[in-house]
Amino acid sequence: MKNARVTLEVNGRDIPLNPFVGDFIRQVTLGMISALKGVKSPRRIKLEIEAEKPPAEKKGKTRSS
Q1: Is the pTM of this model over 0.85?
Q2: Which residues are paired to 10 by β-bridges?
Q3: Is residue 65 part of a domain?
């Protein structure tokens, strides 16, 4: 699985990853997911994270307010 492809998209924009970072993300993610009960030989993983909006965006205020 050394040649596995890792892609990253943030806010609809593709983020290029160098080989080291791509391999790092792959190894860490596979390690965590493989440890989950009921997961055997993951071949394709889709992980989506919706980050909480910063307080300034939540209330329509700027940081200086």
Answers
A1: no
A2: 13
A3: no
